[in-house]
Amino acid sequence: MLLAGGQGSRLKALTSSVAKPAVPFGGKYRIIDFPLSNCVNSGIDTVGVLTQYKPLELHSYIGSGQPWDLDVMDGGVHILPPYVREDEKGTWYKGTANAIYQNLSFLEQYDPEYVLILSGDHIYKQDYSKMLDRHKEMNAACTISVMEVPIEEAPRFGIMNVDETDNIYEFEEKPKKPKSNLASMGIYIFTWSKLRDYLIADEKDEKSANDFGKNIIPAMLAAGETMTAYRFKGYWKDVGTIDSLWDANMDLLDPAKSGFDLYDPDWTIYARSAIRPPQYAGEKASIKHSITTSGDEIDGKVENSVLFHSVTVEEGATVRYSILMPGAVVKKGAVVEYAIVAERATIGEKAHVGGKKTKSEDWGIAVVAQDLTVGDGATVSPNAMVTKNVKKGAKA
Amino acid sequence: MNDLHGIIFAYQQSPDLRELVQFRNSCSVPFGGRYRVIDFSLSNLVNAGVTDVGIIVHTSYQSLLDHVGSGKDWDLSRKHGGLRILPPFGFAGKHPNSQYRGRMDALSGVYSYLQTIRQDYVLLTTGDLAANLPIDDAFEQHLKSGADITAICVPETGADPRLTTYMAVDENNHVTDISVHPSSPKGKASLETYILSKALLMNLVDKCSAHDVYSFSQGVLLPGLTDGLDIRVFDFQGWATRVLKVGGYFHCSMELLEPKVRSDLFRMDRPIKTKDQSNPSTYYGPDAKSVNSLISDGCHIEGTVINSILARGVRVEKGAVVENCILLQRSTIQEGATLRYAIADKNVRVCPGRTLMGHGTYPLVISKDEIV
To answer: Do A263 and B283 touch (CB under 8 A)?
Structure first.
């Protein structure tokens, strides 16, 4: 069950028209491709995708599930928005646990032995079957995927305190004085019969926030259920902010250093691809330490950047340390640095977007929202969030 | 669904394509980086709203089968109609160990399939043609003109070595003469794409089969001119080529580096579809240099690539130089190797420091899976 209803409000302009899981990532993908592909690569063939916030683009992106081989007769991908039930008292999903509760009848159709709960906000590669092996081996009611984080960062996470066999005896949400550095990744496996009981009980509690982290996990711990931690090692990134989204994209340029490699043939990340011809590097092109894809037409300078499909970088333009989303256009002589340019935005001739990294508090990644035009010779300062067209020669 | 059925001749294995057709037929030769030649015919048909397509194959079609699969990448995997691969089921029994001698042979080889065609009109085309054809326009002209056969042609190309059949026309675009492989070509060059009614097609196949006539151009079109067949030309103004010879293949592949040719072939309103391979993007290393090149997804470029076309998953390592080359799927040019005027087929590996050179008029071809 993939929770994909998140608004991703900290991504601001990038999620003004799409849900966070539909945000483009890594040249060819959207965030949701990672958990979806992980499912398929782990041998999971029945996936429910729970949507709520601005779901249209996400729905059409998932479609029949064909790019992920999830267009099968038995199982496959199911899109699960909130709906009006028999008592005509349908509500929006109130919390993560309530979202699953509202789909009890979906789960009952399949009557699974185990349920995997995922969120559509993270970039990582994980074999969930190994986690399930541990869940079975420990005969647990719940297994939570955890990773070690630097102890000073632990107060930002839900922290699991475990015994010598990695069984969880305590869960602390964002503790001021963490006792361990094992952070929950928001990935849970439940024995379905157990989870079902707790979801029903939780729904009856009017004071509950109907959230896995805040309510279900503490309730199960309090009742003395076997809760175990599964230690995940490898790359994992929450791309909930502009900075972390930019960082994670840059990590792709240096797989040896970041430990995140999309070229591994044994763990392909699948995506619905645009039908575009191969990219063209022109006579004046210089492309270094970057990833680019189909339909790109590059005649300028591209360095340390991630370009999505159908991007144009004209002669004499420079793109550095930036992310150009599908259909973005950078015109002659423009400079784009430390910036995210969203879908189909146009950067006019000799315009300047973003600025070199400085230690100043005002510095940050500049963002130009989708379908906007930054006029010729205009300037977009670092850290700016452009949500309206910028006139010729103007400053934003 | 419209009233047109597509038949693609994909049994050809042009010997002049040398190593490129060692393991495949002419129609599944890779073209334009991420495509196989047959992608163009398939996409042209689908873009014109054709829902039923038969592909006539004979031998060496494993690679083609592998590529088109169920046809789902072209939306041709359908409950009714869709894609049919047509091996020589009605022919191999009668003529064991024999190739189709021509298109009429091929059509009578799949006779029982022709009988099941649901549409009133049929488009015959060749799987070795790379062009973005407005088939719906040609079909409309065919219906309006009342012609028996409409041939899609490119106007007055002169002595174009890539095309073989030429049609002389009068002022109304009626065909007055047809010549195949003429020494001095006159008229319009045929793209070997014809529209006719199913009734006429069945009639012609029956007649040719009874008289053991196997050639479409010499057995149907040419006698048709005197037998009163109304054959007319639909003028196609865009870029087109057939994949027939290594030299021509190399030359016209390189034409794709011109923006005008690319925008003509890869139109937004009529996209060319191909098999999805779920490749990641292409990575360029810190010392990479790539100039005037067409590069597919999943490549890893650390060296220099100039005036070249790279298919999916190609690796060009540090210090390697690739100039005026076509590198096919997953070929690897290792450190410090130099390649000029070469075509490296699938999975080829050129070891460190090797130097290989062909010439524009005679490009070197390295066979599939070979290690140099």
So the answer is: yes
- Chain B interface test: which of A257, A258, A275 (most B C-beta within 10 Å): A275
Alpha-carbon distance B266 to B268, whole Å? 6
Among B265, B282, B327, most A C-beta atoms within 10 A, so best to mutate, is B282
Residue with tokens 């199960």: A220
Interface of A with B (CB under 8 A): 26-28, 66-67, 253, 262-263, 268-271, 273, 275-283, 285-294, 302, 306-307
Give how far Cα A380 sits from Cα of A114, A308, A320, A351, A395, Å. 50, 21, 15, 8, 6
Q: Which residues make Cβ contacts (< 8 Å) with residue A360, sequence separation at least 6?
A: none
Contact at CB, B257 and A280, closer than 8 angstroms:
yes
What region does B298 belong to: left with phi over 0, alpha with psi -120 to 50, or beta? left
* Segment-wise mean pLDDT, segments of 10 residues, chain A, 396 residues: 90 90 96 97 97 93 94 94 79 92 95 96 96 97 96 92 95 92 96 97 94 94 96 94 96 93 93 95 97 97 98 98 98 98 98 94 95 97 95 93
Secondary structure of residue A268 in the 3-state scheme: coil
Output the pTM of the full model. 0.93
> Which amino acid is located at B232 in the chain?
R
DSSP run (H or E) holding B150: strand B149-154
Which chain B residues touch A if contact means CB-CB below 8 Å? Answer: 32-34, 72, 257, 259, 262, 265-266, 271-273, 276, 278-298, 300, 305, 309-310
Burial class of residue A192 in the structure, from the number of CB atoms within 10 Å of its CB (0-12 exposed, 13-18 middle, 19+ buried):
middle
